[in-house]
Amino acid sequence: MIASRTATGIKAGIAVGLFSLCVATGGFPQRLSPRDDPEAAANGTTYIPPQTIDSGDYNGDGSDEMAIFRFSNGLWGIRNLTRAYFGALEEVAAAGDYDADGTTDIAVFRLGQSFWSVRNLTLFYFGTGGDYPVPGDYAGDGTCRAAIFRPSTGMWSVRDLTRVYFGGSDDRPAWLYLNGERAIATFRPATGFWAVRGWTRCYFGGSEEYDVAGHYGGSAEPEIAIYRPADGLWAVRGMTRFYFGGSSDRPAPADYDGDGSDDFGVFRPETGIWSIRSLTRAYFGSTNDVPATR
Asked: How far apart are CA 16 and CA 21, in angstroms?
């Protein structure tokens, strides 16, 4: 998830123990841990990556699976379902239901080259160096489409569908569904400013927090939410606040029990433990893995 937003070329670094894997290609940074980056520590800031996974129901049963992607060798692990090798160090996970069959497809996006590969389905180029992959069902027809957000211009481009300008270089794309469609939405860490096209604008959160919007209350409308790794704070706007997780945990909210509401979950890379609030705990994964579910 490299130390600078303006880094160019292909660089990678792995710090074992504190888990910081950094990759930058063509200006797109993807730090796999929001913590323990030397440059961030020096200037008092933390870079937290955008969400690049659209969904996590890998068997089509209506509930999301615990799943991991390992950058070092392209391993995908879907708990109680399958393991597969697909991807490489320069690629980020971009899973989604690309063929609208109700099952999440394993997919990756190659940094810098904007090359998309969907396992057993297709591969193509879409985007350019510096773009963020933001796959999703933007038409509400059940099909996940390849899409990019270009921070330099604020452009969103959804393959074979639309192109709009929304946001800018200080924003990161936010994962959020509204009325059955992936919304064009941004979160500005410096000020905690959320902007959801055609829905709302508000201030909630800040630079040390993950944006983790979802459907936590089971209602038709999503909830804006943040997770603060420093102390494990989850805050859902207008709904609840509580502590669950800690500084080494990555948020992994998803609908793990298939009831239509997102569950609060965290993944701890050092031990591979998943903790889903009020549901379960399980060991699955290891130090260099990132959660591949949503």
From this structure: 9
